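Sync notes, pocket subgroup
Present: LS, DG
LS reminded everyone that the earlier model was apo-only. Rerun requested with adenosine-5'-triphosphate included. Inputs:
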Amino acid sequence: MSFVSIDTIVNLCKRRGIVFPSSEIYGGLRSAWDWGPLGIELKRNVKNEWWKALVHSRDDIVGLESSILMSPKVWEASGHVATFTDPLVECTNCHKRFRADHVDLAKACPNCGQGPTWTDPRQFNLMFKTHMGPVEDSAHIVYLRPETAQGMFVDFMTVQQTSRKKIPFGIAQQGKSFRNEITPGNFVFRTREFEQMEMEFFVKPGTDEQWHKYWLDERMNWYLDLGINKEHLRLRQHDADELSHYAKDTYDIEYEFPSMGWSELEGIANRTDFDLKAHAAHSGEDLSYYDSETDERYVPYVIEPAVGVERPTFAFLIDSYREEEAPTASGKVEKRTVLKIDKRLAPYKVAVLPLSKNADLAPASEKLAAEVRRHFVCDFDVTGSIGKRYRRQDEVGTPFCVTFDFDSLEDNQVTVRDRDSMEQERIPIEGLVEFLGKRL
Ligand code: ATP
């Protein structure tokens, strides 16, 4: 496992404005986090890579953005009102509450060390409830969605008919979901508001197991391709008693987090025809599919890869974090922190750094940054020594630093420094964008 601690990553995130506690001036709100200027770029890149892999690069998956607030009937039909629960226990000594499946009930309370004196587990529904309109009675209850998936199921017919996709095909969606988790924590790993990336892949019954295998491979490869160390990833099949109410078979892609150990990044479930059948029964609409090739009508089965944006983003930060010895210009050796994150995920792709604050360098270096910015997300930094500025870019994973010096004014060349090798190359300004484009 990589040596970095979660605290180190939390500190880096806070110090560099990647992620920090929400509402901090009021003491924060437990488990709610804000993504700062660099964090939002990073998170957006993760979402874009997912969207590219699942939607833009394929002919058999289309996108959707369904509403967060849906008819409460959706959640009755889907089984969430009745069964989207976690077992809650309370320590009768300190009154702290835990998910019964997250503590060893035979042992003392992890909070106060007393006991074990647990209450009997009771089922706690994780859906946030609110009221639609000004009347706060039970007839006006709506839920904040706990998953984006139901939007894909209730819109299945409309999307299939308007996109004219034939089975097998998928519908993909990214968006916020909400769960009133009993014990949120571990930084952004478990929060009450998070962003999901889910894809429902509709297949002919009988081909579901084969497609399930296919999506396990595809999703595993997505993480590997984006640079996660193979040793830190594994697939784990759910035991029968872990399966959600809708699932026939589920695998989790797990990452070995420091101190937390193996934990779920993504779930890949065979949801069978459970959801479409439930919505057909509750709504009275026919949600079956007519297969013109085989002249059959059936309710499709569904394979669902479902992941939150935050967990893989956290894993990408941990997995790419390095502390290294690096020689400085004066020949001394210093420690440098560097995020060796995949270039596609790096918040900034390039930083343009004038060698000094000298006014002679300003107009030309600013002009250069403006030109680079037309092609790549680019930072411009003039404060501190050049060495310090390289370190600042290294620790947020900027793949290339472009230094504009006094010679640049004469020879129209700049020095490009590579984040990982720290090698420097002198490049004509004219060819800079092409040079960077080839490497990014
Ligand atoms: P867990 O067992 O950790 O509670 P889950 O199995 O209930 O997770 P799913 O219902 O499979 O989670 O949700 C799909 C994905 O959504 C998860 O793999 C995870 O990436 C993300 N996710 C779920 N709950 C949270 C949460 N509270 N905070 C952040 N991400 C979450």
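DG: The two ends are 28 Å apart (CA to CA).
LS: The CA atoms of residues 202 and 302 lie 5 Å apart.
Action: DG to write up.
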